[in-house]
């Protein structure tokens, strides 16, 4: 099977909550008000609770406590709130899976680290709507869950990467595609915005262009999260092409700060998005 076939088979497995579908419809509507959106979110107590916890986390650095969904919408805006709802919906859809074929603790920790690193770098580089890089980072490896559900032995094989064979190289050799390619196909089937899907799909691209900062940050995000997860195997210097830093006007010290940020905030975000995993820490 190719990446698209895996994704097509997985669409039903990764079912989004009804509240997400309705929120998405309202977000895309020209006539829906913020109150209409807040009303739908409030019908889902789990979504409401997680949304307010994330909105009040250090990730958003709001000057005051946000105590209602309506206030969160006003302060964050529709775009940021939509991205938050997406991240909660995806983590909810994925968290019900269990498997002995892959290390789910590693999967979630690395995904959340990538999300936080992506948001930090997008903010640092002055990108508009940096939350899209948060979502891209969170979902960057969702293809692994897709393969895990349908081909557990191959998913287990793909965990045997080394300092010489990077994860995406092993995935390509084992499956004929990368988890990034499979994840992008799934996100397209979910009809997520191109601004999220495109950087995810091209996270392993080595065609660097200063006019595509989202793709460059996605490239960095994946490699920094990997180096942070496996310091025994990888380092920033061995994973990151210095030309990318030059194009984004970044220094090594900026990357270290991004990693520090994810290490500081990661456990809290993990506890909100996937409490089942976070209880073991």
Question: Can you tell me the CATH topology?
Answer: Hypothetical protein af1432
Superfamily at the CATH H level? Hypothetical protein af1432
Instruction: Tally the structural domains.
Output: 1
Beta-strand fraction estimate: under 5%
Q: What general form does the structure show?
A: globular
**Nearest-integer average pLDDT:** 90
Number of helices: 17
Total beta-strand segments: 0
Give the C-level CATH assignment.
Answer: Mainly Alpha
Q: Could you say what the CATH architecture is?
A: Orthogonal Bundle
User: What is the N-to-C succession of helices and strands?
Assistant: HHHHHHHHHHHHHHHHH
Q: State the helical fraction.
A: 55-70%
Major β-sheet annotation = none
User: What's the Cα radius of gyration?
Assistant: 18 Å
How far the N terminus sits from the C terminus, by CA atoms, comes to: 37 Å
Structural class: mainly alpha
């Amino acid at each position: 099977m190719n990446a698209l076939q895996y994704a097509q088979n997985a669409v039903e497995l990764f079912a989004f909550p009804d509240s997400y579908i309705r929120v998405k419809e309202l977000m895309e509507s020209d006539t829906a008000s913020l109150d209409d959106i807040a009303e739908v979110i409030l019908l889902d107590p789990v979504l409401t609770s997680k949304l307010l916890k994330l909105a009040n986390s250090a990730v958003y650095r709001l000057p005051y406590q946000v105590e209602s969904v309506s206030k969160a919408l006003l302060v964050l805006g529709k775009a940021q709130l939509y991205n938050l709802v997406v991240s909660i919906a995806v983590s909810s859809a994925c968290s019900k899976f269990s498997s002995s074929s892959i290390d789910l603790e590693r999967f979630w920790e690395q995904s959340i680290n990538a999300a936080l690193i992506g948001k930090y770098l997008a903010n640092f580089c002055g990108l508009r709507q940096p939350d899209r890089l948060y979502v891209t980072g969170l979902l960057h490896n969702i293809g692994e869950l897709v393969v895990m559900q349908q081909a557990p032995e191959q998913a287990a094989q793909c965990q045997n990467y080394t300092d010489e064979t990077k994860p995406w190289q092993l995935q390509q050799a084992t499956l004929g595609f990368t988890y990034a390619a499979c994840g992008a196909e799934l996100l397209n089937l979910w009809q997520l915005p191109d601004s999220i899907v495109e950087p995810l799909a091209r996270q392993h691209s080595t065609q660097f262009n200063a006019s595509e900062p989202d793709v460059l940050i996605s490239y960095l995000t994946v490699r920094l999260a990997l180096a942070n997860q496996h310091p025994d195997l990888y380092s920033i210097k061995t994973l990151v092409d210095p030309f990318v830093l030059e194009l984004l006007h970044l220094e090594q010290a900026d990357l270290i700060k991004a990693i520090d940020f994810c290490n500081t905030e990661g456990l809290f975000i993990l506890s909100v998005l996937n409490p089942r995993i976070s209880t073991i820490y």
